[in-house]
Amino acid sequence: MPKINTILFDCDNTLVLSEELAFEASAEVLNEICTAKGVNLEQKFTGPQLIVEFVGQNFRGMVRSLSERFGFQVTPEELEDYVRREETAVIAKLRAALKPCPGVDAQLDRLAAHGKYKLAIVSSSALRRVNASIEKVGHDRFFDPNHVFSAASSLHPPNSKPDPAIYLHAMKVLGKTADECVAVEDSKSGTLSATRAGIKTIGYIGPYEDDKKPEMEKVLRDAGAVVIMKDWSEFEDCLDKIEALNQ
């Protein structure tokens, strides 16, 4: 079996603590859409509510899900306008307050120093948002711009996790097989996307509240995560465990 030589990182709440900021902006735009479409919500959407329901999905997928739930129509032109508005609102929040996940910088420094692995980002989020995120926290120094992949921007037509298409696309561009790769994901949809592409996956539960960690560990294991990582300080051990499976 080929040796692992490539690490594919999700971005949101895996490399950067973006989900709370992003979903605040998403909620604001979704509430505007519901008002425009005549949907009478008992309670307006909030960021925490959307995190529970849609973590790991992109905004395009959220709008489509809500249009089906509430029975309103969204034209392709309207959808793209909403997506651009949400993306701009999210990026503004990220540029103001985004921070890296605790401990990830040390691991990326170590990986870059010994150069054993090719590093790439595989995200559901729009490419403009991913680039804004990694630039804000200084992670852009670790990733070749051509090795940052977005299901919302790199695929035609756009897609979203849990579909494996973005991982399959990334491996094709990188010239890698699934056996050469390890993915790091924090959500059910992301883990499903990677595992459906045949990639062994580390499930990262660090950003979740302590009382949610046991539940999320089960969710990610059920979605196919091979090992669970509670903190980035455990990354090297998690990678060793997966590499042992390839021998």
From TrEMBL:
UniProt name for this protein: Uncharacterized protein
Keyword tags: Carbohydrate metabolism, Magnesium, Metal-binding
SUPFAM superfamilies: HAD-like (SSF56784)
A Pfam short name: HAD_2
Domain of life: Eukaryota
Cofactor: Mg(2+)
Organism: Phialemonium thermophilum
